[in-house]
TrEMBL record:
Molecular functions (GO terms): hydrolase activity
Pfam families, per database record: HAD_2 (PF13419)
Keyword Heme annotated: no
Signal peptide per UniProt: none
EC number(s) per entry: 3.-.-.-
Source organism, top-level taxon: Bacteria
InterPro entries named in the record: HAD-like_hydrolase_sf, HAD-like_sf, HAD_2, HAD_sf, PGP-like_dom2
UniProt keyword terms in alphabetical order: Hydrolase
Organism of origin: Actinoplanes subglobosus
This protein's name: HAD family hydrolase
Length: 225
């Protein structure tokens, strides 16, 4: 008999909250403050999912990252204060509540750096009572699409891959989960990616919107009883 799903692990950007469009606007604002030309949306989309400081030299060739990084942080803090970034839709929060009420742990696994996720670690954040752990590039040794991105999560929680399911929006998310032996749910809510972008070998299920994850997890659990 297969093991029951005890944990739902979730990607942040364009899965739990819709991030790409706001990030595109934010990054171009920083580029403008540096006197640099704006990047086209097509380039941002093509490099979306890469760690920010690895993607920026592609998005703006020749950029001085030592100048960009602090300006980005300052601008990001303003976007957060203004409610223009990392806004989690109420229906997604409700879905998290349902997952928690079902007795499952909810964790986040993101490719963001620690400083890009620190606001979500605050005790007064809406995720504080819903999410048991947040894994990012600051507390993991490997990043997606490397399957070892889950190593710390699995070791710390004591869970087996069969007891987890990962929800993400990118082909790299699917590859990482599949390589780690974790079921993967592809979330298409952002519209950034399409089902044809994914390798079917790594996709357990696909949802049009994040709240549908609750029913999918329940369905997977029933088939394992």
């Amino acid at each position: 008999m297969s093991e029951m799903i005890k944990a739902v692990v979730i990607d942040v950007d364009d899965t739990l909250c819709m991030t790409e469009a706001a990030s595109f606007e934010l990054e171009n604002e920083v580029l403008a403050s540096m006197g640099r030309s704006p990047m086209p949306r097509s380039l941002h989309l093509a490099t979306w999912g890469e760690p920010l400081l690895e993607a920026m030299p592609h998005r703006s060739p020749g950029i001085d990252l030592t100048v960009f990084a602090p300006l980005f942080q300052t601008t990001m803090d303003r976007y957060l204060e203004e409610g223009r970034l990392d806004v989690i839709p109420p229906e997604n929060l409700a879905a998290l509540d349902e997952l928690v009420l079902s007795g499952r742990s909810v964790m986040l696994l993101t490719s963001r750096e620690g400083h890009e996720i620190r606001h979500m670690l605050e005790p007064d954040h809406v995720l504080a009572t819903r999410v048991s752990a947040i894994w990012h590039r600051g507390n993991t040794r490997h990043g997606k699409p490397d399957p070892r991105a889950f190593d710390e999560l699995l070791a710390h929680s004591g869970l087996s891959p069969a007891q987890c399911v990962y929800v993400g929006d990118s082909p790299g998310d699917a590859v990482a989960a599949g390589g780690a032996g974790i079921a993967f749910i592809a979330c298409m809510q952002s519209g950034v990616r399409r089902p044809t972008d994914f390798d079917d070998r790594y996709v357990t299920a696909s949802v049009a919107a994040f709240p549908e994850v609750v029913a999918v997890v329940e369905g997977l659990s029933r088939t394992r009883r």
